[in-house]
Amino acid sequence: MNVTDAVAEILAEEGVDHLIGFPSNPLFDDDAAEEAGIRPIVVRQERTGAHILDGIARITSGDQVEAFACQHGPGTENSVGGIAQAYAESAPIVALPAGYSRAKTNTDPKFSSLINYQAVTKTTEQLTDPEATGETIRRAFQAARNGRQRPGLVEIPKDVFYEEVDDIDYEPTSSTRSGPDPEAVSDAADALLSADLPVINAGQGVHYAKAWEPLKELAELLEAPVATTLNGKSAFPEDHPLSLGAGSKSEPRQLNHFVHEADVLFGLGCSFTKTAYGITPPTEDNTLIHSTNDPGDVDKDYKSDLAVIGDAKLVLEAIVDEIHSRIDDTDFGRYDDVTAEIAAIESEWRDDWADVLESDETPINPYRVVHELNETVDKEEVVATADAGNARDFMAPFFEVTEPLSYLGWGKTTQLGYGLGLMMGAKLVHPEKVCVHVMGDGAIGMTGMDFETAVREDIPVLEIVLNNFEMASYDTPFSGHYADFAESMGGYGERVEDPANVADAIERGVEKTKEGTPVLLEFLTDKYTELSRPDLE
Predict the structure, then answer these.
(1) Which InterPro entries match (predicted)?
(2) Res 283 pLDDT > 80
(3) Who's near 160: CB < 8 A, 6+ residues apart?
């Protein structure tokens, strides 16, 4: 067999279900992936392909590591953004871009993935020896699956694809988890038990570890409020009395209040990166405990007092066991007071925002769209996300999620148009779910043509466009009739101008997706951009 067929066989052995990307790459062109039982999906824009794989990885808690492929040269140049996004969000994928032939690899100005992708992948290799095909691809999967999960990349020069190799005897890689140091667990338990008001900040590591139940157990045991990062949103049910919601540029009022009242802040499965899209830990009169599976995050931006390194589920279970070994079944006596205070602050905050959320003004207030979406969809059957910019800031505090992995958030710098691919990935894994993405007219301009990919590949996502004919608050005019565009691509499109019709349109959109049709609902909105932030209230 040749290297192309060998790689396809290896992907099948690794449990890859989808090869997503763009020709010209022999894995697509020679039907190698399809013949190995892998579904090929060709996208309109390379980075959207990486975003779809990102969504698959995230919605499966990192269990499903899929493959990306693209053309040498322009394909690899176009793909950097998608791979970089997966790297930033710790999403495991394996990228197999073609490269220039070995004779031309180092000829200027040939684009080299080996050189240029090193900053946005966990491992980067070039396959130059056909006989090393198995071990080279194995290293990429091993890196992607273990530790802090991130992309592994192997560039395959286009002449290498056609080299003959012996039959591959390949064994797939496995995933491992690391447990915490018992002394670190004991120290963390000391701090949590001595706290007057401990607060937990849960990140995406809770999702990857599937640690939702032990997180809830620890919160209820300590009678401690729980905030999440935007990546961690849905790790803790937001209808729980101890929930503070998700920290972001726009966030619930009760979250900021309790984070700054806490005498112990326990960050779990998070990086504590200094960002406008996350919480800012208090710097005085508190204890900061940081638990992560990546030691490189500890003290990176904020100095922690205690560090517990390990898989979030193993850490939580160890801390819960340690606390149970020290206390009886009596409570701390703060549950009623804490939950009443959360409820009171939340009620006041929602009252202050009621006029905006329920506004009857035209053009439609964008918060009205988010409010109706929140009230209309079944939270047990939804997966949602919002794109960068104002769509994120409208959704993060006001779209409530109750089920694990029912929201795919993101944490740091993020590309416009990211959410379309995320929801396509989620829908591939969970066709029974309503996968909804809220974006602005800036985002649809970046990746909107891949709505056609959703139609062509039978991936019935629900796209909601908040169209205010402007790029956020930058006073840059945009135009377009996006509902007509959706219809022209073979999907269902509807433009809505009356706030009284918002809920009905969402209901119709949900039903259309259940019938198997991708949907784009375009809401003509005003330029309202006020955010739920403590410094603005």
Answers:
(1) DHS-like_NAD/FAD-binding_dom, THDP-binding, Thiamin_PyroP_enz_cen_dom, Thiamin_PyroP_enz_TPP-bd_dom, TPP-bd_CS, TPP_enz, TPP_enzyme_TPP-bd
(2) no
(3) 3, 102, 127, 128, 130
* pLDDT, tens only, 126-167: 999 999 999 999 999 999 999 999 999 999 999 999 999 998
Report yes or no on 232 lying in a domain: yes
What's the domain range around 503?
A: 358-535
Q: What is the CATH number of the domain that holds 62?
A: 3.40.50.970
Work out how many domains the chain is built from and give that number: 3
Q: What separation in angstroms does the CA of 305 have from each of 41, 313, 326?
A: 47, 21, 22
Contacts of 336 (CB under 8 A, 6+ apart): none
Domain-located, residue 352: no
Question: 144 is written with which tokens?
Answer: 């992607």
Give, rounded to a whole angstrom, the gap between the first and last alpha carbons of the chain.
Answer: 66
Residue with the two structure tokens 């018992």? 182
Task: Indicate whether 313 and 228 sit together in one domain.
Answer: yes
Q: Using the structure block, give the residue that is written with the tokens 């589920």.
A: 313
Same domain, residue pair 255 and 317: yes
The neighbour count for residue 488, using CB atoms within 10 Å, is 12
Residue 40: strand pairing partners: 19
pLDDT computed for residue 36 by the predictor: 97
Are 67 and 7 in contact by the 8 Å Cβ rule? The answer is no
Q: For residue 449, give the 3-state DSSP assignment.
A: helix
Which of 342, 367, 397 delimits the end of a domain?
Answer: 342
pLDDT by residue (tens digit) across 344-353?
Answer: 999 999 999 9
Tokens found for residue 142: 């091993």
The percent of residues in the chain predicted with pLDDT above 90, rounded, is 91
Whole-prediction pTM value? 0.97
pLDDT, one tens digit per residue, over 47-95 is 999 999 999 999 999 999 999 999 999 999 999 999 999 999 999 999 9
State which of 278, 308, 342 marks the end of a domain.
Answer: 342
Rounded CA Rg of the chain: 24
Closest residue by Cα to residue 317 from 231, 223, 212, 241: 212
φ/ψ (deg, to 5) at 290:
-120, 120
* Integer angstrom CA distances of residue 333 from 193, 214, 255, 260: 13, 21, 21, 21
Over residues 302-317, mean pLDDT:
97
Helical (H) or strand (E) element with 519:
strand 519-524
Secondary structure of residue 164 in the 3-state scheme: strand
Q: 159-162 — which CB contacts under 8 Å span 24+ positions?
A: 159/101, 159/102, 159/103, 160/3, 160/102, 160/127, 160/128, 160/130, 161/2, 161/3, 161/4, 161/26, 161/98, 162/2, 162/3, 162/4, 162/26
Residue 171 CB-density burial (10 A; 0-12 exposed, 13-18 middle, 19+ buried): exposed
| Domain identity same for 487 and 402 | yes
Residues whose CB is less than 8 angstroms from the CB of residue 43 and which lie 6 or more positions away in sequence, other chains included: 20, 21, 22, 49, 52, 421, 450, 453
